[in-house]
Amino acid sequence: MATAGADLPRLRELNSLSVVRALRAHPAATVTELSQRTGLSRPAVDVIAQGLVTDGWASILEPGASSVVGRPARRYQFRAGAGHVLGVDVGVHKILALLSDLDGTIVHSVRHSVAADAGATERLAELDEVINACLTEAGKTPADIWGVAIAVTGAVDATGRTSFFTPLPGWKSVDLTAHLGGRFACPILVENDCKLAALAERWKGAAQDANDIVYVLGGMRTGAGLIIDGVLRRGFGGAAGEIGALKPIRWLQAPAHLQNCPGVPSTVGPDDAAAWVFNAARAGDKAARTAVNRYVKDLAVGTAALVLTLDPQVVVYGGGFSRSADLILDPLRREIHRLCLRTPEVRASTLGADAVALGALKLSLNEVDDRLFSAGLSAPVAPRRH
Amino acid sequence: MATAGADLPRLRELNSLSVVRALRAHPAATVTELSQRTGLSRPAVDVIAQGLVTDGWASILEPGASSVVGRPARRYQFRAGAGHVLGVDVGVHKILALLSDLDGTIVHSVRHSVAADAGATERLAELDEVINACLTEAGKTPADIWGVAIAVTGAVDATGRTSFFTPLPGWKSVDLTAHLGGRFACPILVENDCKLAALAERWKGAAQDANDIVYVLGGMRTGAGLIIDGVLRRGFGGAAGEIGALKPIRWLQAPAHLQNCPGVPSTVGPDDAAAWVFNAARAGDKAARTAVNRYVKDLAVGTAALVLTLDPQVVVYGGGFSRSADLILDPLRREIHRLCLRTPEVRASTLGADAVALGALKLSLNEVDDRLFSAGLSAPVAPRRH
């Protein structure tokens, strides 16, 4: 009709994008398969696929010797190695960097310990070292990186800072975008650790089948991340999921039951007290069992507040304490069932200590995809920040 | 390209849809204006618009005598009267039905009182009477109705029942879809009153500018409805917003401060006690002022739990008590500011007692639009339920 002529160049680009999408979703495909997946004709796909190889978006898998009948078809695959992204977890006790290709396959990781009381300057220097080590050891330069996402503890405001609150000493005014902006030309994202752990659980963890997820991070601090209708929710000002700040829902006091449990040897430091209590409870220690039960009762109040508010399909319990999910999940389920109108599934995290950094990786990958599929297809180069 | 030919009939339909959309969004438009809005050529719009008139989707506004230069252009407008929808609020004390055209313009309304202790049979009979009166007085038959939405008190489960909990006597097993299905061939929706009031506030009320809204219904019961990213959230099983059921957030006890306020005359019934207390507080009565302050303090705890969880742009306070927003909003703002990390705007409802029925109307209109714009355009007839 009237607009069809004017839209033809755009249509060609859209057809190219649909081939890229079809390539991304599968390991490798022939022209026939791509034609079936996209609804485009075989000759059209043939032209588009060769163009994508020229531009660097796709590579050709030549047929192996295993094919015996007729001329085997060449296969195309998305060149996930065209670019890389960095996901970094800046935690209280550690900094962990993950480097992946555009498919999210991790090609390198570096983890350094950091003192809980390290100031902002010291923590930033350690962050720089971890990133440098990760790039150097993987044979990459900042120009190879298409996106960086950094996870921090505390809600992230509109300026990318944790100005509301953060337990990291001196971190409230740290501007990570500015700090890393000198080295990376690509977009640099900063996001809250609980939110990113939630994203990771849906990507590769315990809630891959769910669109409505309440993630609870259990540790010496208790936090939450929310996925609603498949989308990570930041809230209007970035402070969604911060219900832990409200005294009556008892998350502020919950971990103290473990830390102050009678019987913890004086040789065990405060950071290891909870692990000692979980082990003792597992071994049948009565005081330890009581402490765990009290922890779960308090944990359940805040969790029930989230469940009653959002009515999610799944609650995922992650964080350091989720290593002791065997002691926590059953009583947590019972309490939620007692307190709520409808009881969601309650599952333990399957990602362990890497969840937050994995979520950062996923955030960066999503942002790269948004740019690719909105800006249209040029040859793959590391995009600059706006 | 390859698919363009095969997609042409679909393209024509899509172009028709875009003209219908352009018509719906504005009072009336010339072919030139529609061409500008849709990006389609004038000749194409001309053909499409005449087809829409033939099919009953649009009507022609012939130019009036006010045009003096040249031949004035005829204008097309969406025929909002092609169909009608019903929004009904089945409350504890009243049943209110609103009848509107497809633009949401209300053409008739009927309100009946109902006893708070009326059983399900009595309340259903009253509902039937209200609907009959509304249709008859407006000169409509059930065949003219394209959608019906009923608001009820209590979370609505997947079967359309309030099986989790409802304060309406004997209502838990009521199947409204079955009850009304004999009379109406169109879809019948059932939804929770607080959720629908939230929808109404965004449609025509206090939060038309916001996409992230926490709606709090204040009355002898306190409830919540959530709009996140512009979409009303039901939760996985329909029980989102039911945080009021959690004792520690103090909504269960909040209205009792008003009901049990010292000094309420024995002649004032329990349903009117709150109104008496608000008036007395306004007149300077000390006990009444204390009762209002205690109510707001408790109201604020649950509201803060929602704000800390979702970090909305706006909190709307509605329901019966919002008539006394002059006494409630300022202290509520102070408490939220004290308890939360980031403070949203707090506004009073502007819709009064019609909010819930208006929300039902909007839910039904949204559903009609979904059907229109997904199924494609045939002539406008009342659609049947699936």
Describe the structure in your own words:
The structure is a homodimer of 386-residue chains. Chain A is an alpha/beta fold and 386 residues long. The first copy, chain A, folds into three domains: 8-78, Arc Repressor Mutant, subunit A, CATH 1.10.10; 83-197 and 355-375, ATPase, nucleotide binding domain (Nucleotidyltransferase, domain 5, 2-Layer Sandwich); 208-350, 2-Layer Sandwich (Nucleotidyltransferase, domain 5), CATH 3.30.420. Chain A is 40% helix and 17% strand. The first copy, chain A, has eleven helices and twelve strands. The first copy, chain A, has helices spanning 8-24, 31-38, 42-55, 120-137, 176-181, 193-204, 256-259, 270-282, 286-310, 325-339, 355-375, and strands at 58-61, 75-78, 84-90, 94-101, 106-113, 145-152, 188-192, 213-217, 223-228, 231-232, 314-318, 345-348. Chain A has a five-stranded mixed β-sheet with strand order 5-4-3-6-7. In chain A, strands 10-9-8-11-12 form a five-stranded mixed β-sheet, with helices on both faces. A two-stranded antiparallel ribbon of chain A has the order 1-2. In chain A, helix 1 (8-24) crosses helix 2, helix 1 (8-24) packs across helix 3 (42-55) and helix 9 (286-310) crosses helix 10. The model of chain A is unreliable at 1-7 (pLDDT under 50). Chains A and B meet through helix 1, strand 9 and helix 9 of A and helix 1, strand 9 and helix 9 of B. Chains A, B: Residues 16-58 form the HTH iclR-type domain. Chains A, B: Pfam families: HTH_IclR, ROK. Chains A, B: This is ROK family protein.
